[in-house]
Amino acid sequence: MSDRIAAKERKTAETNIYIKLNLDGNGISEIKTGSGFFDHMLELFTKHSGFDLKLAAEGDIHVDLHHLVEDTGIVLGGTLKEVLGEKKGIERYGFFMLPMDETLVETAIDLSGRSFLNFDVQFCQDEVGGFATELIEEFLRAFTSNGLFNLHVILRYGSNTHHIAEAVFKSLARSLRTAVRQSGGGIPSTKGVV
Hints:
- With 194 residues, this protein is of the alpha+beta class.
- The protein has four helices and ten strands.
- A four-stranded mixed β-sheet has the order 1-2-4-3, with helices on one face. A four-stranded mixed β-sheet has the order 5-6-10-7, with helices on one face.
- A hairpin with a 3-residue loop joins β1 and β2.
- The mean pLDDT is 96.
């Protein structure tokens, strides 16, 4: 098994993002974005995916968190795409239904080489921990667009905004963990390319 590790950096007038991703890690994270809530969500993602993630992000958060969150998704998606390469021998698909107290979130992933996001989640509050909840969809759109994969996120039910957000990131992590699992064999497509 070859190492599935990659690092990427993106610098713009608005943000400076560095990410190192190891798909075959131990769920170890070193994350600093300037937003405690976003850090927490990415730490949950790392722990539940089993990936190792080093992420340093700076940006114009005096304006708001939008650019920082979106650009983090861009870089994380690009890094995942690079690590997966031609996707030989992976499961490709992943699905997980995650309960968290009164909340139930379902996610499904296809590492198809095509980008699509269905985000069927309504939050009970517009903000949690100083973080605008609408940014979760922005992050996921940037992540899927640059990682070139399909992601469906469905909130079955829930009433606590923190629980809903946390369940989204944990369920995403568990689905992705399954999809990137190496099961042997060739390219997981009748086309011979994903």
